[in-house]
Amino acid sequence: MYVAMNIVSAMLYDGYSSASQTISELSAIGAPTRSLWVPMGFVYTILVTAFGWGIWRSAVNHRFLRITGGLLILFGVIGLGWPFAPMHQRDALAAGGGTLTDTIHIAFSIVTVLLMLLAIGFSAAAFGKRFRIYAIVTLVVLLVFGTLTGLDAPKIDANLPTPWIGVWERINVGVFMLWVVVMAIVLLQAKEYEVPKAL
Question: Which residues are listed as membrane-spanning (predicted)?
Fold first, then answer.
């Protein structure tokens, strides 16, 4: 769903660059794709919340798995607020047109990334060694490309070139989405082996 949102929106936004612009710019105030992005984002958020609920329900005796599910539910609930905290387009920000929604948008971004990292971290403790290694590698990739994204972020407000920010951000999103898929597969196979109980 999220991948489709990105691809379709980027195709419909004339002049938009997936390499040099952030995902948030697709739903920015004044962006031609905002009216498409917001309802699709709502559906995506509901699906993430449902996935978190599914993990929560499947983790009756496993504390770390329950925490993972709870964090994803919180991730989804907070995501419902994204439409009410859009960023402005770069030229508006550079001209001093930023408002409270831009500040809230940044706060949402920080909280969302923190919830992602925590969910992946707790999932690492919920399963065996192979999944733990996978989760740790995922966390490292998120931290590396999250740092690269963060270093470029101030240039957005100044409307300066950010030739790779879209790539860094999409790598992060892709790595998180892959973790969701792997988590789903592991949970579906959980009947074939006992999920180790949390300590």
Answer: 36-56, 63-84, 104-126, 133-151, 171-190
Residue with tokens 């988590």: 183
Give the residue-averaged pLDDT of 30-58: 94
Integer Cα distance of 175 and 113 in angstroms: 12
Considering the entire predicted model, what is its pTM? 0.90
Radius of gyration of the chain (CA): 18
Give which of 192, 186, 171 is closest to 65, Cα–Cα.
186
Half-sphere exposure in the Cβ direction for 47 (13 Å, CA)? 12
Can you tell me the distance from the alpha carbon of 8 to that of 67, in angstroms, rounded to the nearest whole number? 34
Tokens 């740092």 locate to: 147
What tokens appear for 168 in the block?
A: 């860094």
Look at the block and give the residue holding tokens 């030739």. 163
Tokens 């300590």 identify what position?
199
- Contact between 53 and 29 (Cβ < 8 Å): no
Determine the 3-state secondary structure of 128 from DSSP: coil
> What's the pLDDT tens digit per position in 32-42?
999 999 999 99
Instruction: Name the band, by pLDDT with cuts 50, 70 and 90, for residue 188.
Output: confident
Strands (E), 107-172: none
